[in-house]
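Give me structure tokens for this 346-residue protein.
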Amino acid sequence: GRKFAAQRLYITDFKVFNDPIATKVNFEQVKSISLKYDQDFFTIQLTALDNFSNPGKVYYGYRLEPFNKEWIYTQDRNISYTNLRGGDYQFFYKASHDPANWNVETHMLQIHIDTVFYKTAWFIGVIALVIAFLAFAFYRYRIDQAKNLHRLQLQATHLERDKTEIQYQNLLNQFNPHFLFNSLTSLNSLIYENRELASQFLEQLSAVYRYLLTNKETQLVTLQKESAFAVHYISLLKTRFEDSLSVVVQIPEELLGKKIVPVTFQLLIENAIKHNRLDKESSLIVTITADENYLYASNNLQRKEQVSSSNRKGLDSLQTLYKYLSSRPVIVKETAETFSIAIPLI
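Here you go.
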């Protein structure tokens, strides 16, 4: 067959979202092009100067490695690609007068598309390492916690042992394993569905566990610290439950110096979630307020038919613990429509 040596082939235009890109030299001299991560829709225009006996009958062959494995043949001079991932590509192209004869010169244009940071291998690797670190830290803490409990039980009197068990139960509520594993499951899903939201979720999760670790030996914290912790904790819950859960916290500024047991907010909110149905048609609404003497938490009742591990240990432990901290009792009230609990402020 006749080789296509007499026919010159050029890239005469390169458009991104139908807008020509600017180059310092003519496209005939361009050997490589770099694009931003969001410039993933582009059109390449080929032009062949035909010297054969039947001008105008030009066939084009092209492939974009590694996107195309096989050559594609067409008479259309405009070749478009869309939704390409970041990376390096080689655009091979050629032209022939005879669609059955492709013994012609092949040309190549190097194309680079930037990769957005949250799609890079290093970002995914960092997320995986953080998840592994959180799981390992939680595992080690649980082991240390069990050792400390055993030591305290051997040393304590019956009354001291009873008080220690209550404090330990409160600490267990702080590090609810179901909450951790549910959070890690949600984070794992977000990594594949929405990496920006996954990054935000990870920051909130880190803030929650930083607060828990910081206050694990603290008997009381201010409402100001507890309210700040609640912002991160509620954000995690909203990511999981979306519109099926609403938590409203309204603490007067003048009461932010009052004190309560750490993660009381978490215990009260988890208690409401554990015992009630959550769905978008009938959202669970938890409201937390305060006055000079008490912190109040209330929610609408839409009870589950069955509640896993519902033995009231969390609330019972909280009530017993506050007997050592305040002369005012914990008050629990329930009507046909609402459940409420009042916690003494210290």
